[in-house]
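May I ask you to comment on the folded chain given beneath this request?
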Amino acid sequence: MVNEVLGKQLSDKEIWVSFKSGDLDAFNLMFDKYADVLFDYGRNLCSDRQLIEDCIQDTFVEIWSKKERLSDTDSIKFYLFKALRRKIYRRIRKESNFFVSDEIKSDLNFNLQASQEGVMIAAESDSQTKKMLGDAIENLSVRQKEAIYLRFYRELSFQEVSKVMGIGMKSTYRVVSKAIERLQGALGETLK
């Protein structure tokens, strides 16, 4: 079905509906569109490259096998982020034989990589400002880093960030707000 609409830009909702009806082309399109984005997100949750790749593959295998029972979505990226996050944490818990709550713990570091920092400061050519921003981001809490990443790097809505992170909407607003305040405070006059 997806091949019939060559040249037309399909929305996530259209791709998802085709996928749920068993369209392998739609499934492949989802994989091609989101596998790298998922890997980038997973890399920030965990440093084990193989574990991330396995969890991405498992996520896609699982959604294919359960496609008829999945709920509708307007944002495939949001749906996959949430599924991958859950899968990585379950796998780490299982392999490490320790309990990890739904809240990210300090031993599961969420790291924003330099390349992502570059996106945030692409318009800024001053290397000192880049270093200051990198240092400021490094000083955010793990939860704040993840919220900033999801909201501003991956452009998820506050509601989607809330659901991916498993926290309430008020908490999501508070975490993002506090992170922005900390970044502004750390950068001070540099941004003015």
About this structure: The longest helix spans residues 24-45. The mean pLDDT is 80. The radius of gyration is 18 Å. The chain has nine helices and no strands.
